[in-house]
Structures are given as structure tokens and as C-alpha cells.
Amino acid sequence: MQELSCVPDFRKRKEYAIGELLMGGLGMFLFRQDSRNEINNKRREAGFSKSFERCFGTRLAHGDSIADVLCRLNPDSLEEVKMNLMAGLFEQKFLRKHRLLDKYYPLAVDATGVVSFDHRHCPQCLTRTSKNGQTTYFHYVLEAKLVTSDGLCLSLASEWIENPNGEFEKQDCERKAFARLAAKLKKHYPRLPVCILADGLYPYEGAFDICQGNGWKYIFVLKDNTLKSVQEDLVLPRRRSPKKSCYHVKGGLRIASQYRFENGLAYKKRKVNWIECVEARTRDMPRERRPAKEKDTETHCFGYLTNLEVEGGNVIALAAGGRLRWKIENEGFNTQKRGGYELEHKFCRTSLNGLKNYYTLLQIAHALNQFVERSGVVREQLKTHSKETVKNIWRMLVAYMIFACEQEHFSSRNGNGIPPAPA
């Protein structure tokens, strides 16, 4: 990968090029190996190493050599690589079809835990003390991911939530990190039309100012106990008849949706717009076939604040855009934690730089794998075999990497692919 080869190399003795070492770290996540030891075990297989070199044009270095470089490499260098790769997708207009209202790219913003310790890992650790007096030390990261209705979840920028060196009055938090993340996004994607999607933590004056200053649109979750002045203005709109209704069937559910909205609500010195969607979900099956405790109909309510003008023609699209925020939880963090990438695994226990660099390589690998999994070859495989899974396809790929070169070696020796009989 050319971008990896351009990372500044700080070493004096160089058995491997910097691109080879970074490609080795990336390969661990590309093939969903759950630890450094696991990829080292694959490396000992001659067939896997040869296949790796043939596929990527680089040798596969030992995991300890890779870790040594990642512990000393400035994390900003790899973060720059990731953002350049994502910027290239926008320049090629590859993601235009996923825009909200055919204009804005939906960016979900949320934080997740990466690792935790029962001792202080580094001076930047966040801390939490339980009621029984036990202190946990952990690292959180704030993500801005492009999310789409068909399940893409691509990391555009990451900002670590960490305490500064020396003394401080309050720990770092998600809101402080959002200001830094927004500055990073604006710097690297200055002309990108963005709509920020975020949870109930974000309807506050600082987030509104940041979005307004950067010329961004937003759709924030509105909880019942936030922004009291706005909630008071919503008493009458909530009692009025729905302004838009629709009905559809999805996943065995009959869903009747009712939408209410109000523009120009006053909040301090600004105006905000409100959307509410109330869904009544009914199981599309006879009552006798349902579990005994299952209700006939379940009702769910979703409320949002936005600076986009709401009307009958776009309220459904805007409400659906607000709900895209869940993609960062499911297709994003949950997949990376439980889908073979082992996000919460301690790939580097002693170095904060190493921890950050492994995390960035994971984000790049996850983005690449998402495009592979949406390729025609994989989709045809999943379509042909109803019980096939993406996870099993990756297992078969690793097996192919191990045995393909050996098979070709046998074929070249006796012309029929069968190893010669022993003398």
C-alpha cells in the first residue's frame, strides 16, 4: 500500500521497510487474527508468508518487530494515512449515492472504550472509582464515522479522550474531545457537506456553536429530560395530529409510523427544529404462533433536534437519517469488538503510542474489508449458499493463503498436483 510506505521512517537500522512493517500490522486485522501471537503462528506457515508476499508485494514481518515500530511511531502519522484514504473516496465521488437528502454525508459521532486496566497504564489514563472503592483505568476514543443505510461504517477521524500530562482539575470528556475532533474534520475535509448524527449527549450550546461555525448540519437525539425550555414549547405540538403517516412491513413486523415536526423553536439565541417519530410495531404472524409473553403491538418513540428545515416532503428521510446513528454502535463498534477484529484486546500493554497505532490500523482494515465483503464475488457466494457467513469466508481465505503455495509447489514438481511418493 503506497500510503503506508510514505510514513516517515525514524529508524537507523532497517531490516524491513516501514511500509512492510505497517502492512504486516494491517494484515493482522485484514485476516481477522485476534492477537499478535495468532498472526505469528500463521507467519510460521511457509505457504501463508509466500501468499502474503504475493498478494501485497511485501514480506510479512514478525509481530514483535511490528510492535516495536508501532510503539515508537507518532500516531498522527497513521491517522493522516487513514484520513487521506477516506478523502480519496470523496474525491472519486465513490460515496455520493449515500448522501442524506442527496446533499449531506451522514457522520455519526460517538465514543467507545478500547482497553481497561486495574492499574495505571499511563499518565493519560481516565479513571473511574466504583462504590466499593475499586478504581479502573481505561482509554476511550471518540469516532466520526460515515454511516450508510446499507451498513457501511467508515472511520473518517478519531480523537482520543485522555487526560493531559501534569495536574488538572477535571478529566477529559467526550464533549471536550468533540471540539478537537470537529477541528480535525474541518481541517482534513474542509468542503465536505456534513450532517452530524449524535446521541442525547450533544444537544448543548457548544455542539450547536461548533456545527454552526463549521457550516455543518446536525441531527441530535432529544431526550425527554434535556433542554427544558425546548421541552416546554413541545407540549402543544406533541398533542396535535400527526403531520405525516406511513406504513410498511420489515423483518416480519408491520410498522405504522406517525411523524410530528415543528420549526423555529427558541433555544437561547438560536432556533432549532424538532422531529418526532412514533412507531407501532405489530408482529406479522398469527397470535397462536407467537411466544406467550409477546405483546401484540409495541410502541417506540424517537425524537430529534436539527438545523435542517423540516417539511412533509423530507421528514421521513430526516428521521431515518437520525436513526442511522445506530450504525456506529452495531456495524461499527460491535463488529470491531465481536466480529473478529478484537477491538478491546490489548495488542500493546506498555505503550500508548502502540495502542493508538494498532487502533488506527484496525480502522483502516475494517474499512477495506467492508468493501471486499460487498464485492460481487463475496455477494455471489453468500447468495448461492444460504447458510454461508462472512466469518466463514474469511476462515477459508486464511486456509487458502496457507495451502495455495504448497499446492502450486507440488504441481510444479510432478505436473499433476500430487506430491511425489517417498523413495
Q: Please trace the helix and strand order, writing H or E for each element.
A: HHHHHHEEEEHEHEHHEEEEHHHHH
* Uncertain stretches: 416-423
Backbone structural class: alpha+beta
Largest sheet: 10 strands, mixed
Q: CA-to-CA gap between the ends?
A: 45 Å
Number of helices: 15
How many extended strands? 10
Q: Mean of the pLDDT scores?
A: 90
Question: Can you offer a commentary on this structure?
Answer:
With 423 residues, the protein is an alpha+beta fold. The chain has a domain of 116 residues. The protein has 15 helices and ten strands. A hairpin with a 5-residue loop joins strand 2 and strand 3. The C terminus is likely disordered.
Which descriptors would you attach to this protein?
alpha+beta, 423 residues, disordered C terminus
Write the layout of secondary structure elements.
Elements: H1 2-5, H2 18-30, H3 36-43, H4 46-56, H5 63-72, H6 75-91, E1 105-117, E2 126-129, E3 135-147, E4 153-161, H7 174-188, E5 194-198, H8 205-214, E6 217-221, H9 228-233, H10 235-239, E7 244-250, E8 253-267, E9 270-283, E10 297-306, H11 315-323, H12 326-338, H13 352-373, H14 376-384, H15 390-414
Parallel strand pairs: 1-5, 5-6
Antiparallel strand pairs: 1-3, 2-3, 3-4, 6-10, 7-8, 8-9, 9-10
Helix pairs in contact: 2-5, 2-13, 4-15, 5-13, 6-13, 7-8
